[in-house]
Design goal:
Helices cover about 25% and strands about 30% of the residues. The strands form 2 sheets. A 7-stranded mixed beta sheet has the order 6-5-4-3-2-1-14. It has 7 helices and 14 strands. The model has no long low-confidence stretch (mean pLDDT about 95). A hairpin with a 7-residue loop joins strand 8 and strand 9 (about 135-140). With about 230 residues, the chain is of the alpha/beta class.
Protein backbone atom coordinates (compact mmCIF):
# COMPACT_ATOMS: atom_id res chain seq x y z
CA UNK A 1 0.00 0.00 0.00
CA UNK A 2 1.24 3.50 -0.91
CA UNK A 3 0.21 6.96 0.25
CA UNK A 4 0.92 10.08 -1.82
CA UNK A 5 0.55 13.50 -0.21
CA UNK A 6 -1.16 15.86 -2.66
CA UNK A 7 -1.68 18.67 -0.13
CA UNK A 8 -0.83 18.94 3.55
CA UNK A 9 -1.84 22.42 4.68
CA UNK A 10 -4.81 23.75 6.61
CA UNK A 11 -6.81 25.88 6.77
CA UNK A 12 -5.10 27.33 3.67
CA UNK A 13 -2.01 26.60 1.60
CA UNK A 14 1.47 28.02 1.88
CA UNK A 15 2.33 30.91 -0.42
CA UNK A 16 3.65 29.82 -3.79
CA UNK A 17 3.53 26.05 -3.57
CA UNK A 18 1.22 24.69 -0.87
CA UNK A 19 -2.11 22.90 -1.25
CA UNK A 20 -4.65 22.08 1.41
CA UNK A 21 -5.60 18.54 2.40
CA UNK A 22 -5.70 15.75 -0.17
CA UNK A 23 -4.16 12.27 -0.43
CA UNK A 24 -3.96 9.42 -2.92
CA UNK A 25 -3.89 5.82 -1.68
CA UNK A 26 -2.85 2.93 -3.92
CA UNK A 27 -3.18 -0.76 -3.03
CA UNK A 28 -2.22 -3.08 -5.86
CA UNK A 29 -4.06 -1.77 -8.92
CA UNK A 30 -6.71 0.07 -6.90
CA UNK A 31 -6.80 3.81 -6.15
CA UNK A 32 -8.82 5.96 -3.77
CA UNK A 33 -8.63 9.65 -2.86
CA UNK A 34 -8.94 11.04 0.68
CA UNK A 35 -10.27 14.61 0.71
CA UNK A 36 -9.81 17.12 -2.11
CA UNK A 37 -8.72 20.49 -0.79
CA UNK A 38 -7.63 23.55 -2.75
CA UNK A 39 -5.02 22.81 -5.43
CA UNK A 40 -5.06 19.04 -5.09
CA UNK A 41 -6.84 18.20 -8.36
CA UNK A 42 -3.90 19.26 -10.54
CA UNK A 43 -1.51 17.24 -8.40
CA UNK A 44 -3.81 14.23 -8.55
CA UNK A 45 -3.86 14.48 -12.35
CA UNK A 46 -0.05 14.47 -12.35
CA UNK A 47 0.06 11.27 -10.28
CA UNK A 48 -2.51 9.04 -11.96
CA UNK A 49 -4.72 8.72 -15.03
CA UNK A 50 -7.74 10.60 -13.69
CA UNK A 51 -10.15 8.20 -15.38
CA UNK A 52 -8.98 5.57 -12.87
CA UNK A 53 -10.29 7.61 -9.96
CA UNK A 54 -13.71 6.23 -9.10
CA UNK A 55 -13.85 6.60 -5.30
CA UNK A 56 -13.30 9.72 -3.15
CA UNK A 57 -13.67 9.67 0.63
CA UNK A 58 -14.33 12.94 2.46
CA UNK A 59 -13.46 13.11 6.16
CA UNK A 60 -15.47 16.27 6.82
CA UNK A 61 -16.94 19.22 4.99
CA UNK A 62 -14.61 22.11 5.78
CA UNK A 63 -13.54 24.09 2.71
CA UNK A 64 -9.86 23.15 2.96
CA UNK A 65 -10.81 19.48 2.54
CA UNK A 66 -13.46 19.81 -0.17
CA UNK A 67 -13.04 22.89 -2.37
CA UNK A 68 -11.46 21.19 -5.41
CA UNK A 69 -14.51 18.95 -5.71
CA UNK A 70 -16.18 21.92 -7.37
CA UNK A 71 -13.66 22.25 -10.21
CA UNK A 72 -13.42 18.47 -10.44
CA UNK A 73 -17.04 18.52 -11.60
CA UNK A 74 -16.04 20.43 -14.74
CA UNK A 75 -13.51 17.73 -15.58
CA UNK A 76 -16.01 14.94 -14.95
CA UNK A 77 -18.48 16.63 -17.28
CA UNK A 78 -15.85 16.72 -20.04
CA UNK A 79 -15.02 13.05 -19.43
CA UNK A 80 -18.68 12.01 -19.11
CA UNK A 81 -17.55 10.14 -16.00
CA UNK A 82 -19.21 9.59 -12.63
CA UNK A 83 -17.36 9.07 -9.35
CA UNK A 84 -18.50 7.76 -5.99
CA UNK A 85 -18.24 10.26 -3.14
CA UNK A 86 -18.34 8.81 0.37
CA UNK A 87 -19.22 11.27 3.13
CA UNK A 88 -21.60 11.82 6.03
CA UNK A 89 -24.92 13.42 5.18
CA UNK A 90 -25.30 16.94 6.46
CA UNK A 91 -28.23 19.34 6.27
CA UNK A 92 -26.27 22.37 5.11
CA UNK A 93 -25.98 24.71 2.15
CA UNK A 94 -22.35 23.66 1.54
CA UNK A 95 -23.30 19.97 1.38
CA UNK A 96 -25.93 20.76 -1.24
CA UNK A 97 -23.56 22.97 -3.25
CA UNK A 98 -20.84 20.32 -3.24
CA UNK A 99 -22.76 17.18 -3.97
CA UNK A 100 -25.89 18.10 -5.93
CA UNK A 101 -24.36 17.18 -9.26
CA UNK A 102 -25.16 14.38 -11.75
CA UNK A 103 -21.52 13.25 -12.00
CA UNK A 104 -21.32 12.59 -8.25
CA UNK A 105 -22.81 9.44 -6.82
CA UNK A 106 -22.98 10.30 -3.12
CA UNK A 107 -22.88 7.47 -0.58
CA UNK A 108 -23.58 8.16 3.09
CA UNK A 109 -21.16 6.88 5.72
CA UNK A 110 -21.12 6.65 9.52
CA UNK A 111 -19.36 4.54 12.15
CA UNK A 112 -21.34 1.43 11.15
CA UNK A 113 -20.40 1.64 7.46
CA UNK A 114 -17.98 -0.77 5.77
CA UNK A 115 -17.04 -0.13 2.13
CA UNK A 116 -15.11 -2.46 -0.17
CA UNK A 117 -13.14 -0.94 -3.05
CA UNK A 118 -11.30 -3.64 -4.97
CA UNK A 119 -8.55 -4.93 -2.68
CA UNK A 120 -9.34 -2.41 0.08
CA UNK A 121 -11.84 -2.43 2.93
CA UNK A 122 -12.74 0.90 4.54
CA UNK A 123 -14.37 1.68 7.86
CA UNK A 124 -14.92 4.86 9.84
CA UNK A 125 -14.55 6.29 13.35
CA UNK A 126 -16.04 9.56 14.60
CA UNK A 127 -13.45 12.13 15.63
CA UNK A 128 -13.66 15.35 17.70
CA UNK A 129 -13.72 18.54 15.63
CA UNK A 130 -15.87 21.63 15.13
CA UNK A 131 -17.99 19.72 12.60
CA UNK A 132 -18.70 16.03 12.13
CA UNK A 133 -15.47 14.33 11.09
CA UNK A 134 -14.73 10.66 10.44
CA UNK A 135 -11.36 8.98 10.55
CA UNK A 136 -10.98 6.64 7.59
CA UNK A 137 -9.37 3.24 8.18
CA UNK A 138 -8.15 1.48 5.04
CA UNK A 139 -7.18 -2.19 5.11
CA UNK A 140 -5.37 -3.69 2.16
CA UNK A 141 -1.88 -5.18 2.04
CA UNK A 142 -1.35 -3.05 5.16
CA UNK A 143 -3.61 -0.87 7.31
CA UNK A 144 -3.68 2.93 7.09
CA UNK A 145 -5.75 5.37 9.14
CA UNK A 146 -6.39 8.97 8.15
CA UNK A 147 -7.75 10.99 11.07
CA UNK A 148 -9.08 13.96 9.16
CA UNK A 149 -9.13 16.95 11.53
CA UNK A 150 -9.45 16.23 15.24
CA UNK A 151 -8.58 16.94 18.81
CA UNK A 152 -7.21 14.01 20.77
CA UNK A 153 -9.94 11.54 21.78
CA UNK A 154 -10.28 7.83 22.57
CA UNK A 155 -11.01 6.93 18.95
CA UNK A 156 -7.57 8.22 17.98
CA UNK A 157 -6.20 5.33 20.05
CA UNK A 158 -8.41 2.93 18.11
CA UNK A 159 -6.89 4.28 14.90
CA UNK A 160 -3.41 3.47 16.17
CA UNK A 161 -4.42 0.04 17.42
CA UNK A 162 -5.86 -0.82 13.99
CA UNK A 163 -3.13 0.57 11.73
CA UNK A 164 0.42 0.18 10.49
CA UNK A 165 0.52 3.88 9.61
CA UNK A 166 -1.55 6.82 10.84
CA UNK A 167 -1.82 9.96 8.73
CA UNK A 168 -2.68 12.29 11.59
CA UNK A 169 -3.74 15.85 12.16
CA UNK A 170 -0.98 16.42 14.72
CA UNK A 171 1.15 19.27 13.36
CA UNK A 172 0.19 22.29 15.43
CA UNK A 173 2.82 23.82 17.74
CA UNK A 174 3.09 23.28 21.47
CA UNK A 175 0.55 25.36 23.32
CA UNK A 176 -1.80 25.61 20.31
CA UNK A 177 -5.40 26.20 21.42
CA UNK A 178 -7.73 24.97 18.72
CA UNK A 179 -9.54 21.91 17.29
CA UNK A 180 -6.40 20.05 16.16
CA UNK A 181 -3.76 17.83 17.76
CA UNK A 182 -0.30 19.20 18.43
CA UNK A 183 3.23 17.89 18.08
CA UNK A 184 3.03 17.05 21.80
CA UNK A 185 0.10 14.72 21.07
CA UNK A 186 2.09 13.16 18.24
CA UNK A 187 5.12 12.50 20.43
CA UNK A 188 3.02 10.90 23.17
CA UNK A 189 1.25 8.67 20.64
CA UNK A 190 4.56 7.67 19.09
CA UNK A 191 5.84 6.54 22.49
CA UNK A 192 2.61 4.67 23.23
CA UNK A 193 2.54 2.94 19.83
CA UNK A 194 6.20 2.60 18.79
CA UNK A 195 5.43 0.07 16.03
CA UNK A 196 3.01 2.40 14.26
CA UNK A 197 4.34 4.93 11.75
CA UNK A 198 3.02 8.47 12.06
CA UNK A 199 2.87 11.03 9.27
CA UNK A 200 2.05 14.47 10.69
CA UNK A 201 -0.15 16.50 8.38
CA UNK A 202 -2.60 19.45 8.30
CA UNK A 203 0.30 21.84 8.77
CA UNK A 204 0.06 25.58 9.22
CA UNK A 205 1.57 27.79 6.53
CA UNK A 206 3.67 29.64 9.13
CA UNK A 207 4.89 26.68 11.20
CA UNK A 208 6.87 23.60 10.17
CA UNK A 209 6.64 20.82 12.79
CA UNK A 210 9.75 19.11 11.43
CA UNK A 211 12.11 20.75 13.92
CA UNK A 212 10.01 19.84 16.95
CA UNK A 213 9.59 16.26 15.67
CA UNK A 214 13.27 15.71 14.93
CA UNK A 215 14.58 12.51 16.49
CA UNK A 216 11.11 11.15 17.30
CA UNK A 217 10.69 8.95 14.22
CA UNK A 218 7.53 10.87 13.30
CA UNK A 219 7.44 11.91 9.64
CA UNK A 220 6.51 15.47 8.74
CA UNK A 221 4.36 15.14 5.62
CA UNK A 222 5.90 16.38 2.38
CA UNK A 223 3.78 17.28 -0.61
CA UNK A 224 4.46 15.24 -3.73
CA UNK A 225 6.05 12.46 -1.68
CA UNK A 226 4.87 8.84 -1.81
CA UNK A 227 5.20 6.80 1.37
CA UNK A 228 5.07 3.02 1.66
CA UNK A 229 2.72 1.94 4.43
Amino acid sequence: MELTVLGKYGPYGKAGNGCSSGYLVKNGDDFIVLDMGCGTLSRLMAEVDITRIKHIFISHLHYDHTSDLLVFRYLLEELSQTVNIYTHREDSQWYNILFNHPNFNVIDIDESTVINVGSMELSFLPMKHTVTDYAIIIRGDKALCYTGDTLFNDNVLKCFEASDLVLADCSKPKGFNGPHMTVENAIRLSKQYPETKIIATHQSADYNPKVDLEGTGIISAEEGTTYTV
